[in-house]
Every structure is written in structure tokens, then in C-alpha cells.
Amino acid sequence: MDSAVLEASLYTVKAIAILDNDGERVVAKYYDDTYQTTKEQKEFEKNLFNKTHRANAEIIMLDGLTCVYRSNVDLFFYVMGSSNENELILVSVLNAFYDAISQLLRKNVEKRGLMDNLDGVVSILDEIVDGGVILESDASSILQRVAIKSDDVPITEQTVAQVLQTAKDQLKWSLLK
Amino acid sequence: MQYLRRDKKDEEDGSQSNPFQNLDKSAVLQEARTFNETPINPRKCIHILTKILYVLNQGQHLGTTEATEAFFAMTKLFQSKDVMLRRMVYLAIKELANIAEDVIIVTSSLTKDMTGKEDMYRASAIRALCKITDSTMLQGIERYLKQAIVDKNASVSSASLVSALHLMKPNYDVVKRWVNEAQEAVSSDNTMVQYHALGLLYHVKKTDRLAVSKLIFKYIKQSLRSPYAVCMLIRIASKYLDEEPEVVDTPVYDFLESCLRHKSEMVIYEAARALVNLKNLKSRDLCPAISVLQLFLSSPRPTLRFAAVRTLNKVAMTQPMSVTTCNLDLENLITDVNRSIATLAITTLLKTGNEGSVDRL
């Protein structure tokens, strides 16, 4: 048996990705040279998507990587680490990522909204992992660092649809409380 | 303004689910010329920067000349005080750092931001700055980075610790001079700062066995607050123990054992895994770790079940007898909805089971 004792390192996350329900990349970030070219990365993503989009299983081993994932409506969130990585640490990163985005999108985690807030999404991604090192794993601290003010659009610049949506959301959440 | 109106129209249509679909690289780079306009329109510029980041993220290749051109246009945006815009600029700097030429042009702007009053800027500026810095320039900013490591603001401190780690490979001799600051940061109240500081210390010292042992003995006595930091320490400690002939009854072993009763599952699992992997441990000493993993086997969370069964599977290869106590729980996992868990459970049982139980499978 090869040495099972892990090398202690801050480099924990190998990749992080969001795919849509066709398995296409929405955003993805690779932190080491496991997959050097875009072509290899996209092949891996396709493979990953095929293995995970039906089974709601939370964790899978693929190509010698441990992949943890979560899905919602039309989006799939993935965090990849080495096969020797502590799976629970990877899940904590995944949860932080998902929760921060969910708060950014005010719980409407779907592709449409995500695309409209892509600047926020890439900023969140940047605050969670830096070059493979977990930078922050608490969703509210992440949002604080990103400085997302959810109401920064003046009311005159909002469309009728947006205003209605905001009103609906607020009503919904006040009722659910 | 015209541009905003067009955006609104798209939204009202509601048909287009991806406003970034089929973006043409050259059209986006063309748009980057807007950065030269005064006054700067932050919303519009943020949108263009987002497009550039999206194009890069999709894996489209940018040539050196076009990247450099976009990069230089972007430097104009430092004139705006908009927080969101500045963040996007930092992000774009980091993405273009390896493609564009003469990126050091933004050094002074970033140094100004990192030493300025606005906390919102400082952490991100440090990270961007370290990305474009080379060995010769590092001397110039070393003083600021050392200060930033012990900064009161957690995000500033974390940013500089993590950046120091990235800088370490080409600049080991510089970074190793920062251990005093890193040591101070380990006692931070912020859990992430503690984790990053301990990690950096270990990365600096890992080739020196004596220094590592000192590090371990120092921090196993002092209880670390961050679960991530404890996991890190467990890993350092188990690697150290693996090279010792006598394991049981040492303070380091006691530390690992005590981590089995930690309140965070992440730490409990890390400790159990470290213990079962120690090569000089007798099978009876495995019991506490095995029973922790056994508990995880019946967790409702798939990840915990997966983690436990995978670790037990490894143990079963060398010490099948120690795993037999878990056979009943393993049999329950054969029908698990997660196929990986089911497969691992079966292969483990094949190693631990006797004739009768294997037949039942």
C-alpha cells in the first residue's frame, strides 16, 4: 500500500465549477495543472455532468478526483479536490459557495438570475478560493467582502418586471417567516 | 444610456436566458475602448469587464497584443471610486496577469490601494499585487506585506498570508523572513487567519524536522479555534508520527486521539483517518477510530457515509480483522442510492467477511 499519510498543505481545492442543465460551463476555475487545456477541462466537465446529473448523490470519484456537488433547478455546483482530500472540507467549500450565491440571488438560484449577476458570482468565486487555498468558508463574510449591495439599482432604472419581482420576493419571504 | 436600454429590452423579452451567449471576443475587446471615455460610467464598465472575464473563463484564447491593449485600457478605470468597479478591475488584472505584457504598470496604483484607508480595497489589492509581482519587485513591497499579515482586518491578513504562500516557490528566502508575523497571526481570533497562518508556517518549515516538531508541540498544547487549522495540525502531526518508531503514549498521539471527540465532524474524521493510516499502530489501538467511522456509516449525509466507507475500505486491505465489527453497517450500505458508496461497501465486505456472510451478498 502506498503511503496513505497525507502531505499537509493549504492547497486543497483543485477546481470549482458551475454547469447548466446541458452540462455546459457557466463558470469554472482550475487551480492546478491536472487539466491543462480547455479541451481537457471541458471533456472532464462533460464526463462529470453525465455521471452526476441524474443521480442526486452529493459525492463521486472521477478521474481520481473527489467531486462533491449540489444542484438546483437548472444549475449544478461542483467542488473538486484530490482523492486523498478530506471530503468534509470540500463539502464545506461547496456549501459556502452555494449559500453565498443563493443569498446573492435572493434564493432564486437559477441560470437566468445567475447570468444577470455574473459579476457578483465571479467575485464570490474569487473570495472563496485563492489559487487552490480556501480563503473564506462563511457565506455571510464572503458577501460582506464582495460588498454586494442588493439594492444598488435606483428605482427609476429598474424595469417594471424587476420591481414586481422584488415585491413578490419580499412578500413571499415575509409570509414564509 | 443606449446600451442600458438595450439591456432592458432583453430582460423584458425574457427569452434570452444567457445574455453572454455567443459573445464574440473581438467585439468585447472593441468595447473595452469605452474605458478611455470620461466621465467613467461604472455600471457600463463593470458589464464590459464581466464580459471579458466570461470570455476568458469559457477558455477563449487571447493573444498577447489584444490582452495588453485591454489591460492598458483598464488601467484608466483606477480613476473611478466605485467599489464594485474596482473589484472587477482587480479580478481582470489577475486574469490577464499571465497573458498581457508590462502588467507591472499597475504596481503603484495597487500599492496605493493596499496601504490606503478603504478596507474594501486593501485585501483584494494585496492579492492582485502579489499576482503581478516578480522577485525583483517583491523587495519593494515586502515591508507592506509583513505589516498586512498582522493587520487587524481579517481579510487583509488572510489575503497577505495566502499571497505569501503563492509567492514562496520562487521567493523562498524572502518569505521565510516573515515567520514572526505569521506566528503572531496564528493567535488571531479569526478562524481563517489562524488556518492560513499555521499553513504558511508549515510550508516554510516543512523540510526541517526539528522545526516541525517544535511547531507541533507548541500548537497541540494551545487549542486552536479553527477546525481547518486543527485538520492541518492533525495532518502535520500524523506525518511526523509516521516516522517515529514508538507511537502510542506520546503527547502527539494523545492529541490525535483527543481530536476524535472534537465538536466538528471535519476534525473527527480527519483524526480517525490519520489514526488508521499510521503504520506503527497495533490493531487494538485502532478501535476508537474505527468506532467513530462506524458511527459515520449510518449518517443520513452521503458524504459522511462515503468518507467512512472509503477509509474503512483502505484499512480492510491491511487489517481486515479490525473492520469486522462494522460488517452489519456495511451490509446496510450495499443498497445505498449512491453507487460509489455501495461499491465500496461490497469490496470492503469481500475482504472482511467470512464464507457465510459473503454468500449472503
TrEMBL record, chain A:
Q: How does it assemble?
A: Oligomeric complex that consists of at least the alpha, beta, beta', gamma, delta, epsilon and zeta subunits.
**What GO terms describe the biological role, i.e. biological process, of this protein?**
intra-Golgi vesicle-mediated transport; intracellular protein transport; retrograde vesicle-mediated transport, Golgi to endoplasmic reticulum
Domain of life, per lineage: Eukaryota
Taxonomically, what lineage is the organism? Eukaryota, Metazoa, Cnidaria, Anthozoa, Hexacorallia
| Family of the protein in this entry | Belongs to the adaptor complexes small subunit family.
- Gene designation per UniProt: COPZ1
Q: Note whether Protein transport occurs among the keywords.
A: yes
Principal location listed in the UniProt entry: cytoplasm
Q: Which GO terms describe its cellular component?
A: COPI vesicle coat; Golgi membrane
Spell out the Gene3D superfamilies in the cross-references: 3.30.450.60
Q: What is this protein called?
A: Coatomer subunit zeta
InterPro entries in the record: AP_mu_sigma_su, Coatomer_zeta, Longin-like_dom_sf
Keywords, A to Z? Cytoplasm, Cytoplasmic vesicle, ER-Golgi transport, Golgi apparatus, Membrane, Protein transport, Transport
Under SUPFAM superfamilies, the record lists: SNARE-like (SSF64356)
Classify the protein's membrane topology as the record does: Peripheral membrane protein
Q: Does the keyword Membrane apply?
A: yes
Q: Where is the AP complex mu/sigma subunit domain?
A: 12-149
Could you tell me where this protein is found in the cell? Cytoplasm; Golgi apparatus membrane; Cytoplasmic vesicle, COPI-coated vesicle membrane
Q: Provide the function of this protein.
A: The coatomer is a cytosolic protein complex that binds to dilysine motifs and reversibly associates with Golgi non-clathrin-coated vesicles, which further mediate biosynthetic protein transport from the ER, via the Golgi up to the trans Golgi network. Coatomer complex is required for budding from Golgi membranes, and is essential for the retrograde Golgi-to-ER transport of dilysine-tagged proteins. The zeta subunit may be involved in regulating the coat assembly and, hence, the rate of biosynthetic protein transport due to its association-dissociation properties with the coatomer complex.
